[in-house]
Amino acid sequence: xxxxxxxxxxxxRRTVGGPxxxxxxxxxxxxxxxTAIAVATAAHGARAQAKPDSWTGSDKALHAxxxxxxxxxxxxxxxxxxxxxxxxxxGTALGALPGLAxxxxxxxxxxxxxxxxxxxxxxxxxxxxxxVADCCLIRPLASGDxxxxxxxxxxxxx
Length: 158
Known about the structure:
It is flat and about 50 Å long. It is built from 4 helices and 2 strands. Strands 1-2 form a two-stranded antiparallel sheet. By secondary structure, it is mainly alpha-helical. Helix 2 (59-76) runs parallel beside helix 4 (116-142) and helix 3 (84-105) runs antiparallel to helix 4 (116-142).
């Protein structure tokens, strides 16, 4: 989106929002590579698994929980001036990379098989972490709002 700044015969223009043409091309190339890796992993992971992998297995929360803070960090590492979509793309991609590495490592470990269900939860956690960081931290700080602190309180009553 372009906005015109100023009045008169020669207004200044600046681009607001998403990535430039080169940035968009880089993002699409990264998405294409990630998709190719995921398809290759899925094809190899289609072999018979030693034990069934459930969508509700106890490890799924672990996959999402580890990927969420990495997704938040990835969103914070997006280039200055990046739009929301670009921050979410960075966060999701960077947050899911360790999970992708683990699933690819499972290809060569005896007795281990890569799981596309685990990878789905890695991507879900990374996307959730990037979205929460974007709406609760990055945008408020960029707009000049003050954040006094963020905390988690945990109480156990006896």
